Amino acid sequence: MPVSQNEPPSPVAGQLQRISTGQLLEALDKTQRPQLQAWYEPGTDLCYYETALKAAGEANTRLMAAQFSDSEKALLSQNLDPGVIVKYFERQQESITLIHQQREANPKLIHRARRLGIGFVKVAMALDPIISIVIPSSPEYAIPYGCLKLIFKFVLDNASDRQEEILDHLMALSEILSTMSFQNDMEPTGPMKKLMATIYVHVLDFLERLIEYTNLSSWGRLQKALQSKARKDYKFGERLKQINDFTTQLASLAQKSIEAMEAETFHLTKLTAAGMRLYLLSRESGSATSSSITILERNISDLYQATQLWTRSQASANAYNLLDILLPGENDIQDELDLWDGVTFRLSLGDYWERNGILEEFSLWGENRNVPFLAIGPYGSKDSWVTNFSLDLISLLRSQKQLTTFALCDRPDVNKPWSPTRLMKQLVGQLLEQNPMLMLQEPQIFNTRNFQNAKEMPQVWRIFKKIAAKMDSLFIVIDRIDRCEGEDTMDISIGDDLLRMLSDLVTLHEGKIKLIVTSAEQPPVELCEELRLYTVINTQAPQRRRIWESDDDASSGTQSLVDD
């Protein structure tokens, strides 16, 4: 049967259909784009979409603070218009296809490149409705498009072996989102708007997890090792099912909304002119009351914000008073980081943590962090790499808004080394500096008398333990513990006292508290016994890894060092 001149030819079976930018943009224009005035009314609907805006803002902050290159951050923040996104992926597809053709690559690779580009376009089109609802209120809502572009780059650069798996996840997401219907005559209800915000939050989280999954750079792998177990246990299939459940609920609410509108329309036809006049009169009389309520609400909100600001200001002032008692004349967190910012380490290329093998060991530790992690970096004529590793680790944790307290023990004045008690005071001081509201929440702990008495390890440890117990998550980084050589009034050892207590605290809180320790010297046996696991990376000699583990004879209760 001949093909009509007005109908496009059908694609050959098994062949990927070629779609131009014009066709894709035309299809995008025909997407079920919801009426913005119905789904989002500025000034009144913020309460429904507040969770979505918060999620978008937090994702923006996390991603822009992450260790991405400038070009990768540009992908996250620039040219996030839907039409531009479509053109972007088509250009990428054409570029990849051309490279494969010039190399006379396998036709399967060319087919895969086209499928990849068109697949990402379909996802962008499916995202369009849920983003178009809220984008007029804040440009931050467009971050899912940026996530999609970054995922595409990582798939091409680092995760080509995961390409089919990732594309399957994204295509499943696009199919789920494409089932959502936005009828022009539908009046969205409050519950529908809140559910739409929930869908946005889960979709954004899904895309951010895909970024983590596809980012196989050294910094990406380091970040994965630092993630909490709950975050690492993310299962894409289960999350897709959850998003699908939300869209099903939305469809059910939409149907109920349409039925309610039909019933309401039937009753409205029965209204008389007298009823309309009564409505107008009530609106006029109620406008003054409404204005008064609005002013009152605004005044209450302003008073609440002023009270919160004053309370935090007072708490911060009181916290710094206690810090002056605990650590008189010492640096705050930013001063301490600035002190190390100008330090240059004498390292060979193979010494850096990205290349020396520590990242693999750190990733293994990341699978089970109920034990502390100790990295040993012996050195010869150059510097040890461990402090450079610790500083990058602290920077990454802080950029990801992870609560972190740290102690850098290789002090500039070698004649004034820190003692174990001084180290512990450092950890306490940083926690209080970052959480000044603890002053008001726990006055029986954070008071002048307790801090004046905190001169020896038992008193300082008691305060630290109580602070740590109140934190939802805490990273403790102690660098160059071998430099903690100062003497306390009491006989306090690094291994048998300090690290034993920290190790017990880690075990007690089961993953909530993570302890990372570095040393440039071979540790004493007592330190190994406390930590149970440590890694030796000697970049001046062939790499060796040692693990402290139990003997096969469990009844003996002894432990031994095993060389890999």
From TrEMBL:
<dbReference type="Pfam" id="PF24809">
    <property type="entry name" value="DUF7708"/>
</dbReference>
<protein>
    <submittedName>
        <fullName>Uncharacterized protein</fullName>
    </submittedName>
</protein>
<dbReference type="InterPro" id="IPR056125">
    <property type="entry name" value="DUF7708"/>
</dbReference>
<feature type="domain" description="DUF7708">
    <location>
        <begin position="121"/>
        <end position="258"/>
    </location>
</feature>
<dbReference type="Pfam" id="PF24883">
    <property type="entry name" value="NPHP3_N"/>
</dbReference>
<dbReference type="InterPro" id="IPR056884">
    <property type="entry name" value="NPHP3-like_N"/>
</dbReference>
<feature type="domain" description="Nephrocystin 3-like N-terminal">
    <location>
        <begin position="393"/>
        <end position="519"/>
    </location>
</feature>
<keyword id="KW-0677">Repeat</keyword>
